[in-house]
Amino acid sequence: MTTEQNETIRILRELQGSKCFCGAKKAMMQSFCRPHYSSLPPLMRSVLYQRFGEGYEGAYAKAREYFEQNQKEGK
Length: 75
What we know:
By secondary structure, this protein is an all-alpha fold.
């Protein structure tokens, strides 16, 4: 399996799971827990509604990068 395939599988499992990447509870088939989702800029939230395989993976990756960057900056 390629690295890209492994990443896609990881993102799908996180989407199907009931825990946010931070460990908080989230609804299955939602990207993040409510506090994390609510903290995203509106445009970033809207692109998370793309279908899996049609842009969702990239949108999710960008959102995770956003959280990591803000954590490093202490926001």
